[in-house]
Amino acid sequence: MILKLREVHSNESFQSYSGNAIVLSCLLHRRADLMTLFIQSLNNEYKRKFSNSLYLLAIHSFDEPLEAQVLTRLAKNFDFTKMNYIKEYPDLFYKYLEQYIRDAFNRNFLILSELSPDINNLPLIEMRLFANMSLSDKTIKVPDLTKSHIIQKTIFDLLTNAHESVKKKLAEMRKKTMVPKKTEIKKPKKKLQFNSSEERRLLGELKKYYNKPIDRHFTLIKLQDFYYKNRELDDKHLQKCIKYCYEDIENLEELNKVYIKDEIKRLKKIANLKPKKEVEIEISEIKQKQFYYNIPAFKRRYYL
Asked: Would you give the DSSP letter of residue 244?
């Protein structure tokens, strides 16, 4: 079901959280079949907006092939910074990279677990498990494969060799005035149109959550984003964006009180499952930390 949703919703946050969740779930339950389906589904750039570290861990854990095209996408994770030929002459770069992979491994792909079978001693990176606000402090530590010396060096050398071969080939072609055209990545310009139904929906949502400070806060953020996106169509949209920034800031004290009250109430519901001292410490942390989530209105107010 999540894979189907990822096909039609290109929102970066959704792609990031859902991609991470799928990888972690497949690792936890040892579902190589679902991991294979997930990797096969990554046929658009927007679907790859999730943790590269988790992607590499999944590739390693399930012995999935790491092919030339994916290697170039992950190049920066292995300290390779010479991206000009990858961007401008991708087909030529893939050709040479595949050639070097075949020369080294007698096939067109890498298997990371063959390069580094034991990853238990690698440095760990901490990752959030959930996007849900109430569970945002739940994290997991996973091995960082980019810190494996053998994996890092192998991939960096392959990319470097491909880069040098493309450089040499282009020099030869220039002498014969046969240089291929650079690949131009053009993003189609979308004509902005004001979405009146979306405005009505958001204003209705704001009215609905008028007496619910936490829900109201997140609706105000959506309204700020909506009007800011439409600021070039009419100056009144910019003014409305500013208006909802100030409204959000003015309500922060109330938001904070309700948040602390709700968090303590939630904690007390499960208090019998924890030692009394631990519950007291967590309540103290809630009061001290307060509502610590991002407040875009502060930055946007001054930027505008």
From this structure: H
Q: What is the C-alpha end-to-end distance of the chain, expressed in Å?
A: 40
With 0-12 / 13-18 / 19 or more C-beta atoms within 10 angstroms meaning exposed / middle / buried, residue 176 is: exposed
CA distance readout (Å), 150 to 71, 108, 115: 15, 19, 7
Phi-psi bin for 142: left (phi > 0), alpha (psi -120 to 50), beta? beta
**Residue ranges covered by each domain of the chain:** 51-175, 196-303
Phi, psi of 178 (to 5 degrees): -125, 25
Give 159-202 pLDDT, tens digit per residue.
999 999 999 999 888 888 776 777 765 666 667 788 998 999 99
Other CB atoms within 10 Å distance of the CB of residue 245: 26
Judged by DSSP in three states, 146 sits in helix
Distances from the Cα of 251 to the Cα of 101, 206, 221, 226, 262, angstroms = 58, 13, 12, 20, 17
How much is the pTM?
A: 0.56
